[in-house]
Amino acid sequence: MDRKKILVTGGAGFIGGNFVQYMVNKYPQYDIYNLDVLTYAGDLTKHRNIEKKENYHFIKADIINREEIIPLFENEKFDYVAHFAAESHVDRSIKEPEIFVQTNVLGTQVLLDAVKQTGVTKFVHVSTDEVYGELDFDPTTFFTEDTPLQPNSPYSASKASSDFLVRAYHETYGLPVNITRCSNNYGPFHFPEKLIPLTISRVLNEEKVPVYGNGKNIRDWLHVLDHCAAIDLVLQEGVNGEVYNVGGHNERTNLEVVKTIISTLGKSEELIEFVTDRLGHDKRYAIDPTKLERLGWKPTYTFETGIAQTIQWYLDNKWWWEQIISGEYKNYFNKQYSLK
């Protein structure tokens, strides 16, 4: 039997990194290629436990570099592509929107051109519920795959643009693609600038935890391993051209999330510090994942079980997030991989 080759872009990031580990461990008969340019959020220390496995391969490359990406596809003949690589921090997109357009839009176009030239069985573009804009606080309203795209930040606008490109390459060239749009992820190896890991690390260090505005903005939280299972299913069973929403049925206000973490760690809510609200801060996100559930997926984590597991993981793995905060992780590539 031929060994399938699966390319994961952005595999040194949070969600892509968890997906790489999920696939390497679940499918020893597949070759998993982790492609990442290693920006500030790209961390290879998380893969210490799999980097010596025969079916794991790392490629340092930038998806916007056409001269590098096209020959790579021609040489390797990938069977599947799971495209996670993206700039994803909303605050950074407000300050430096150009970087988000370059990576998220132009980088996606380069990958689509590579797929068009070489052919793959499936290209899954991992997007976000933020492309839909925001919902009001009516608990009966949800994003569906038919909700119009109304992005409100430079980040979500760049992701919506890449979604449209993926759709266009399917409609125009017949590329076998799917788009997935997920709610907020959390879990192991989450970069410490994001709400949940930032809160955990700050609380453990008895430091103030910043909360935007009044903290009443609502997000639907999805455990990253449930997301990995969803992408795996779509990669192999998704109907070409279809969009699938991935949600956790776990709506919480940002303030509720922070208070849950503080309570679990036995600390005082006096650590909470309300700060000036983010520009264009969306009120609420909530996803209806019925379409994906009909394909055969269901989340296995409730927010209660997931957040408890995540907090315990951060308690057990201080080695990881402390070297992320210190910046030591940036040296790992040069130490472990020979530069050619």
TrEMBL record:
Its EC number is 4.2.1.46. GO terms for molecular function: dTDP-glucose 4,6-dehydratase activity. It catalyses: dTDP-alpha-D-glucose = dTDP-4-dehydro-6-deoxy-alpha-D-glucose + H2O. Residues 7-310 form the NAD(P)-binding domain. It holds the Pfam family GDP_Man_Dehyd. InterPro entries: dTDP_Gluc_deHydtase (IPR005888), NAD(P)-bd_dom (IPR016040), NAD(P)-bd_dom_sf (IPR036291). Its cofactor is NAD(+). Keywords: Lyase, NAD. SUPFAM superfamilies: NAD(P)-binding Rossmann-fold domains (SSF51735). It is an enzyme of class 4 (lyase). PANTHER family: DTDP-D-GLUCOSE 4,6-DEHYDRATASE-RELATED (PTHR43000). Belongs to the NAD(P)-dependent epimerase/dehydratase family. dTDP-glucose dehydratase subfamily. This is dTDP-glucose 4,6-dehydratase. It comes from Neobacillus driksii. The lineage of its organism: Bacteria, Bacillati, Bacillota, Bacilli, Bacillales.
